[in-house]
Write a structure and sequence with these properties.
Chain lengths: ~270, ~290, ~425
């Protein structure tokens, strides 16, 4: 069997595209291991002359990166827990339980989809101010408590749970809360992983809200710290790239490990918007 | 069914959270947009005036707003389609049977989507540097003189579009791949027998089949492109000469840098109206095309 | 136990702990803890203030200080945001041109009890004035700052000048000579387009004030301001200055060393940076000079930072002690040693021999000729807007008259609210 020339061309093309797409990430990694000032020479070096971690040392010792890393991780975990707690209960109820006002409430949530989140940010800031929640973790987490997107995702998945299963459990005398924790939650595990992953990545990568609500540098998340540091350290490209690596790597690894769940969530949410 | 209202207890926490932290503030923003709420009013509410539509009228008379709007629309109507074209191209490439290492390639193409926007914007800022940036170095191999990507008013927008396309095309690509996999190969084969070339087959068989996906994707993509903020914030801070200010960036500066909350809320609502209008047009168009 | 059950247990347990942890951290870190004084320092000053206070804390064990470092580029924004969010510290270092704004919104408290112990004759007059609003002292100058010229002696000499000329005309001629010596790709002076200070320095040198009517109306269409604006524009039009922002010059010191530009209007913090970052062989090649003016030596901005006490602070006594301590002449001297920030007190200059230092003496001369920024709370915004319009001017989309008109228009719009507030108060007083 012969390989057709156009197939070689096709694969070569994909290969080149992949290199171009991956290049910025590769370059980020490479520069982060260069000596200070090395990247700002001409021609721009592709690889460090001598691999070194001085940029990372500098970053961790001088800029309080540990704090930012902790804030980012802590907020992303809390956001994930909150989102799972609130959205899964609501999504399940919208799918499987009948109650007064269900349709009206659902339509209301539907309407929320068209309003961009940024519209309410300013009053939300003032609202949190009156509770004394500006510059607190709680304040940063508020937008992550419940999301229309998450409720829809869970609802759609929960609809596939057969009603007979619920009825059987009710016959056995289980109350609704027991049904939910013992029966529903295990069945919803896949969508919970997906939703959790989306929330974690979303919170980790979020920029505008933490930028606004975290008013002092002890509370910055990695992206906010990176944006602020980059204005102060324009010339320190190696250090900034080290910061970018620290920021990007955890989510990239998480994504690669749980790719299956991520793609499924992505496709599910795009089929029915 | 028993327990008629127990579902309410399941829904209530999330619903209340959304009402209190989302609908309430959005409504309050509408009210604030009719006042001159600013740092003085924040200090003392006596300094608050109800100004009717003044914020909106003044906004429409502000050159910066039109600049920001045209920049935003540039992102939506140039960046959006470019990104979708890249997605579709990549999807078609990866969907072809001859392609090897599909999963690896898909992961690489998708990776930029999950990376942190601020971090990769920073990477691009360095890649686009006039003197030491790799892009200009690569271009110099083709005899092209260095371009001041982020500093030249002509090039700053295209440079950001380049970044945004790189960052976003993988998302829609995945959706398109899924759609392409559902296109039956029979039709395509039949067309092939009828003597249709690859381009004709794409136009007449593939495109109609994935049309619904394209329409849905275009709504999502364009609403996303309306909300660009971090890109100019990190890469250009709105410069050079306000060339890269987006509507949302303007809202941020007005609201959270200068604390002109009245103005900023008006900006936010104008943005909202534009997005709503776009969505309505696209869904109307979609339903006309028979896409549900 | 099957895998699902296990996962479920993990999920619920970690859920409980997680919610608990989230719930615990509701308190704002800046919240009013009893004996800790919160302090904001900007940039480098924020880094060293801890060292500076070490002795003070030893002799005042009842006081604890928590310093937070705020980057300069975000400082103004952060202060307003903290005011809006009610998360201001007890003491802050602020740019002294922001003082009228902080007073107007009621963020800072008067330094009543301090004023008795302070000899204001030991401060530079122009700087002291920036700390007074409505005859009340709100800030104590911590270090002073003004903008002047850092330049390459070799470039100036090659152009046939032994020293920086004292007036605009001759100075610009020198710059033109330099430009013709170094060619197309290099420039005589760097005026970063993202900084308003260079333009405002020129504007401070003309007779017309930048704002008029009690700083409630723009005065940018005055003959004086337009003259400054034309001078600024001509630097770019004649290609003496590159059309770029500071962040596009990836390393100012390297580029200065390479001769990409030979003059730079900047502040005293760069004395230390130039000493440290320029290569050995260039250390004798640079110098500082006061600003040339339209006709003879000109004024420059009365910059610097002041220490202010926040109105909401519940630790005012301790805070005032700290402010007082930081402005003692010996502490000021130590502060200079650590940062290169110029002391606000003249006695610290004289005692430390700073007044005769070859780089700092130009600053001493300049500081005797400084003008405070217009005392408008909105000044920072007006300056920023003016900078944006000036960039449009430099890039050629507006001419001088259009730019001046646009600057006035933007300034007047920003000032509208305060005109209304002043009118209202005026009206009440009349009744």
């Amino acid at each position: 069997m012969r390989i057709k020339p156009q197939n070689i061309a096709l694969n070569a093309f994909i290969f080149i595209l992949a290199i171009i797409v991956a290049f910025p990430l590769f370059w980020m990694l490479s520069v982060s291991f260069m000596a200070a000032g090395e990247a700002s020479t001409f021609p721009p070096p592709l690889l460090p002359k001598q691999t070194q971690t001085s940029a990372y040392h500098e970053l961790f010792s001088s800029s309080g990166l540990w704090k930012y890393l902790f804030n980012s991780i802590f907020l992303a975990i809390c956001a994930t827990i909150l989102s799972l707690t609130f959205n899964v209960t609501a999504g399940y109820a919208f799918a499987k339980l009948k109650f007064k006002g269900r349709e009206a409430m659902f339509q209301t949530l539907l309407a929320a989809m068209v309003v961009p989140a940024q519209v309410g940010m300013m009053p939300l800031f003032l609202l949190l101010k009156t509770f004394g929640l500006v510059n607190t973790y709680a304040g940063a987490l508020v937008p992550w408590i419940a999301s229309v997107f998450g409720i829809f995702m869970v609802r759609q998945f929960a609809q596939s749970i057969p009603d007979e299963m619920l009825e059987a459990a009710r016959m056995d005398g289980a109350n609704e809360w027991q049904i939910f924790t013992k029966l529903i939650v295990p069945n919803l595990m896949p969508v919970m992983v997906t939703l959790g992953l989306f929330t974690f990545l979303g919170s980790w990568n979020d920029f505008m809200w933490p930028l606004i609500i975290m008013t002092d540098s002890n509370s910055y998340t990695l992206p906010v710290a990176l944006a602020v540091l980059s204005r102060e350290h324009v010339q320190d490209s190696e250090m900034m790239m080290a910061g970018a690596v620290i920021t990007v790597l955890p989510v990239l690894i998480l994504f690669i490990a749980l790719q299956r769940f991520y793609m499924r969530g992505l496709l599910a949410s795009s089929v029915k918007g | 069914m028993r327990n008629n209202n127990i579902g309410l207890w399941f829904v209530a926490p999330a619903f209340i959270a959304i009402v209190v932290f989302f609908f309430g503030p959005a409504l309050a923003a509408l009210i604030i947009s009719f006042t001159d709420f600013d740092i003085y009013a924040l200090a003392d509410l006596k300094n608050l005036r109800f100004v009717g539509f003044k914020n909106y009228i003044e906004l429409l008379q502000t050159p910066l707003f039109w600049k920001a709007l045209s920049n935003t629309l540039f992102f939506v109507f140039v960046g959006g389609p470019l990104s979708m074209a890249a997605s579709l191209g990549a999807a078609i490439l990866l969907n072809s049977q001859a392609a090897k290492f599909k999963n690896l390639a898909r992961t690489i193409f998708f990776a930029p989507v999950v990376t942190t926007l601020v971090a990769t914007a920073l990477v691009f800022k360095y890649l686009l540097h006039t003197k030491y940036g790799f892009l200009n170095f690569a271009l110099s191999k083709f005899g092209i003189d260095p371009i001041d990507w982020l500093g030249d008013p002509k090039w700053a927008m295209p440079a950001i579009v380049l970044f945004v396309v790189w960052k976003s095309f993988g998302y829609n690509m995945v959706i398109f791949i899924a759609a392409l996999q559902n296109v039956s190969s029979d039709l395509s084969d039949a067309a092939k027998i009828d003597g249709a070339n690859a381009w004709q087959r794409f136009l007449n068989v593939t495109l109609p089949a994935i049309g619904p996906s394209i329409l849905l994707v275009s709504i999502m993509t364009m609403t996303g492109f309306f909300q660009l903020f971090a890109e100019p914030y990190v890469m250009t801070q709105g410069g050079p000469a306000e060339q890269t200010v987006t509507v949302l960036y303007m809202m941020y500066e007005q609201g959270f840098k200068w604390w002109n909350l009245g103005n900023a809320s008006a900006v936010a609502f104008v943005l909202f109206l534009f997005m709503l209008l776009m969505t309505i047009i696209q869904t109307k168009f979609a339903s006309k095309q028979g896409v549900s | 136990m099957n895998r699902r059950g296990f996962l479920q247990n993990i999920a619920s347990i970690s859920g409980l702990y997680g919610l608990g942890a989230c719930g615990k951290i509701l308190g704002n870190e800046n919240a009013k803890s009893h004996n800790i004084v919160n302090m904001w320092g900007m940039g480098r000053e924020g880094e060293v203030v801890g060292d500076l206070l070490a002795d003070f804390l030893k002799s005042n064990p009842q006081i604890q200080v928590k310093v937070q470092q705020i980057p300069w580029s975000a400082a103004h924004e952060k202060l307003l945001t903290a005011f809006a969010g009610n998360t201001l510290p007890d003491i802050a270092q602020i740019g002294n041109s922001w003082l009228p704004e902080m007073v107007a919104i009621g963020a800072v408290a008067p330094l009543e009890s301090l004023i008795k112990n302070i000899d204001n004759n030991d401060y530079f007059e122009g700087i002291w004035q920036t700390n007074i609003v409505d005859n009340t002292l709100y800030g104590l100058p911590w270090y002073v700052d003004t903008r002047l010229l850092f330049y390459r002696k070799d470039a100036l000499k090659n152009a046939g000048f032994n020293q920086v000329p004292d007036n605009w005309n001759d100075w610009q001629n020198a710059l033109k000579k330099i430009k013709s010596n170094i060619g197309e790709k290099k420039y005589s002076i760097l005026l970063p387009l993202n900084e308003y200070e260079p333009l405002m320095t020129f504007a401070s040198q003309v007779d017309d004030p930048i704002l008029k009517d009690n700083a409630t109306l723009g005065n940018m269409q005055s003959a004086g301001f337009k003259k400054a604006l034309s001078f600024y524009k001509s630097m770019f039009a004649q290609k003496l200055a590159p059309m770029s922002a500071a962040n596009e010059i990836s390393n100012v010191y390297d580029e200065f060393g390479r001769g990409f530009f030979s003059f730079y209007i900047t502040g005293p913090w760069n004395i230390g940076e130039f000493k440290r970052r320029l290569p050995e062989e260039l250390q004798d090649a640079w110098a500082t000079s006061p600003m040339p003016g339209p006709n003879g030596w000109g004024t420059s901005s009365a910059g610097g930072s002041s220490l202010v006490l926040m109105k909401n602070s519940n630790k005012k006594e301790a805070a005032e002690l700290i402010i007082e301590y930081l402005s003692r002449p010996d502490v000021q001297q130590k502060f200079y040693d650590l940062t290169g920030d110029l002391p606000a007190r003249k006695s610290a200059w004289v005692n430390g021999g700073l007044a005769d230092d070859k780089y700092a003496s130009a600053f001493y001369k300049q500081l005797e000729r400084v003008k405070p920024a217009p005392a408008a709370p909105e000044w920072e915004r007006i300056a920023q807007e003016t900078r944006i319009v000036s960039e449009l001017l430099v890039r050629g989309s507006l001419n001088i008259d259009q730019a001046a008109e646009e600057m006035d228009k933007r300034a007047n719009k920003i000032l509208e609210k305060r005109r209304w507030m002043l009118n209202r108060i005026g009206g009440k007083n009349a009744q």
